[in-house]
Amino acid sequence: MTKAVKIAVAWLLEEDWPKWQAIDSQLPDHSRWLAKIESAEAKAKSEGMHTERIVVTPDRFVEWCSANGKAIDRNSRAEYAAKTLMIRITAH
User: Fold this and answer.
1) Which candidate, 86, 61, 75, 87, places its Cα nearest to that of 6?
2) C-beta of residue 32 within 8 angstroms of C-beta of residue 76
3) CA distance 92 to 90
4) Residue 90: helix, strand or coil by DSSP?
């Protein structure tokens, strides 16, 4: 049986938004970010891909960036989400 490939989506909670904006000045307001990320998810799904939302919390993310020498930006959030998804998949 072949498992479907999943794409990790770094999911940021609205209640964490003040913290996110404090650590990443490139983030737009939450409603703009949400519209963009939901559009990207819809596009991926329309192309036959499966997505999985990975909730990323600011404090844990900053710790991970510090421990791994990563910048606090969207590329690192994407990498963090992808690695978290991979851990989940391989744990099952």
Assistant:
1) 86
2) no
3) 5
4) helix
Question: What is the value of pTM for the model shown?
Answer: 0.88
Q: What is the pLDDT of residues 20-61, one digit of tens each?
A: 999 998 999 999 999 999 999 999 999 999 999 999 999 999
Return phi, psi of residue 35, to 5°: -60, -40
Nearest-angstrom CA–CA distance, 48 and 65: 31
Q: CA torsion sign, 83 to 86 to 88 to 90?
A: negative
**According to DSSP H, which parts of the chain are helical?**
17-23, 30-46, 58-68, 74-91
Q: What angle do CA 22, 23, 27 make, to 5 degrees?
A: 80
